[in-house]
Amino acid sequence: MNGTPVRVKLWDPFLRGFHWLLAASVIIGWTLGQFGPSKMTLHFWLGYLSGALILFRVVWGLVGPPEARFIHFLSGPRAIIRYARGMFRREPSYWHGHNPMGAWSVIALLVLIALQVASGLVSDPDDYINIGPLASEVSAATRKLALRWHHIGSTLILIMVVLHVGIVLFYRYWKHEDLIRPMITGWKEVIRRD
Amino acid sequence: MRLLVAAALTLVPAMAVGQETAVDQALEARQGFMTMLGTNMGTLAGMAKGEISYDETQAVRAATNIQALTGYDPTMHFIEGTSTDDLQDRTEALPDIWLDLEGFGEKYAGLQQAAQGIPDAVRGGQENVGPVVEKLGGACKECHDDFRKK
Question: b/e map of B51-69 (b: 16 or more CB within 10 Å)?
Answer without folding.
Answer: ebebeeebbbebbbbbbeb
